[in-house]
Amino acid sequence: MAYFNNCVFDVCISENSNDVLCHSVQAYVSACQSANTVVYPWREIASCVMDCSSNIPNSHYEVCGTDCGHTCASSIDASCEHTCSEGCFCDEGFVRSGGLCIPVEQCGCLYDGFYYNIGEQFWDSTCSQRCQCFAPNDLRCSASVCPPTMNCAVRNGHRDCYSPMSTCTVWGDPHYITFDGAVAHFQGTCSYEIAQTCGNVTDNDLEFRVVATNRHRGNMVVSFVSAVDVWLSQHGQETHITIGQNRRVKVDGNAIDTPAYQNNDLVEIREEQGLVILNAFNEFIVHFDGHSSLLVRASERFYGSLCGMCGNFNGNPADDKVLPSGDPAPDDDSFGHSWQSDTSTAGCGARDQTGNADECPSRQRYSDLCSIITNTTGPFQSCHLHVDPAPYYFSCVYDLCLYTPANGMLCSAVEAYETACAILEIQIPEWR
């Protein structure tokens, strides 16, 4: 009687809602079937028709059916209970894959109790093998290891090789990839707050601020990073470092040689493989080529405590492109302009022009040129697992559409991806 009384009560307070009636009866049907009691068709009598084919294509309704042997996973390993229940079940020749009914030949692979779709790649439990599902139950694994600077770990339920540091990249005309992976395109020619500590910083109380200054270079539509200023402070000790064009470095206003420089135990400055590298306790590292590519790396200690054009480093790319107020930026231009630094020179940006990369008659040609970045058999294939090539590829096409391949734009775009791979100590063969 409990189900009946509950049904009457629910229907009364819902003013005779048919949906409420259907849910009440369905609850009783489920209880009966769980007790192995036979239930006969009831939905048409109660006007509770379940429209399976519209909600799940290639499916139909059964009052007493089972998915055992009719899902991709159970079709591979059908060790499941044949429990009867009502619901939507796949038509003949189709099996359940997630919330869909797909042809049996489109099923994936089962590995260590987990199901993987065709095309899906994953690491084994020790990151000693990289596996890929090619066809139904056709799983191929090959020996592989994480790069020296990365660790095997599980984050958000996904096992992969993760760097203990996250990287924000600024390059090209310029493009911005935040610590969390959001992408922005902004061509302003002032100085901009790239990254800085904004929240509570614990442990060694290291605080930093990075400002990049952009300048035109022959084309009033695009700009490039021409100088980087870094401020560091810890326990009352402070320093200001400027890296200009051609990798010229100043510390607190004084020019220095960069092969090896130590500043009061606060930062190490060196030049390596065409990059000036600022390293503060391996917790905060800046790489700049003195031309157009800037990388800012921060350890997990700064998680959720940063702000600027590189985002807040909280693992969520959706909340990176915000104004200093914390409100979402309506577009990339508003995002960039809002982070203009108070160190900008007066009148900067007055001659900026807006380009339109959508109007690009040579897009296919430029796409072919930039595909060296994404080519799965090309020189960068070993890096694809660790640095997503897609943002670099699309930004490469964007640059060529605005600037053409002249003036080394193609090489600069490819070099940006090469640098992102190199800081993880991934060896890239000659590609030029």
TrEMBL record:
Residues 321-361 are annotated as: Disordered. Pfam families: C8, TIL, TILa, VWD. SUPFAM superfamilies: Serine protease inhibitors. Its main location: membrane. Residues 337-346 have a biased composition (Polar residues). One of its GO terms (cellular component) is membrane. Keywords: Disulfide bond, Glycoprotein, Membrane, Signal. It is found in: Membrane. The keyword Glycoprotein applies. The keyword Signal applies. It comes from the Eukaryota. Residues 166-349 form the VWFD domain. Transmembrane segments: none annotated. This is VWFD domain-containing protein. It comes from Cyprinus carpio carpio.
